[in-house]
From TrEMBL:
This is Pyridoxamine 5-phosphate oxidase. Pfam families: PNPOx_N. Residues 15-135 form the Pyridoxamine 5'-phosphate oxidase N-terminal domain. It comes from Tautonia sociabilis.
Length: 151
């Protein structure tokens, strides 16, 4: 069986192709490190700005300790066509009250399950991208996506 030949990709289209995968996939997988073991789980972003992704979490979840010990993470989005976007970056706790309020106001599930923005269990991580890559289905070739063009 021969390897499929992917369609050529115009480099200027990479940011939009990557954003389209992110919109379509919606629920990326988040990879963290737990000691010397990788851990991967689906997450539900609460806000996305270009390739910067905010993720709500509960402080007693395992990923809280994992991110505290090693904030280097990767998000992987895969759409129905199996196109992928991988965002490698650093997760940091989001503390900007105005931005947290904006996220809170826009997310009925947060309000329903946590009751108050001041719930001590709530923590929101911002994944700041350091590297973004895009790959067409089974192409086995990643394309570097310019981060500054992610908006």
């Amino acid at each position: 069986m021969s390897r499929p030949t992917p369609e050529p990709i115009e480099p200027g289209l990479l940011p939009e192709l990557a954003r389209a995968v992110m919109r379509s996939a919606r629920f990326p997988m988040l990879a963290t490190i737990d000691g010397d073991r990788p851990r991967v789980r689906p997450v539900s972003p609460v806000r996305t700005d270009g390739f910067t992704v905010d993720i709500a979490n509960l402080k007693d979840y395992h990923k809280t300790g994992e991110i505290a010990a090693n904030p280097h993470v990767e998000l992987c989005y895969m759409d129905d066509r199996h196109d992928q976007v991988r965002i490698a970056g650093t997760a940091e706790v989001l503390e900007d009250r105005a931005l947290l309020q904006e996220i809170w106001d826009a997310n009925p599930l947060l309000r329903r399950y946590l009751g108050s923005i001041d719930n001590p269990s709530l923590i929101v991580y911002r994944v700041r991208p350091e590297r973004v890559r895009f790959m067409r289905e089974w192409a086995l070739e990643y394309h570097e996506v310019p981060i500054d063009e992610g908006r």
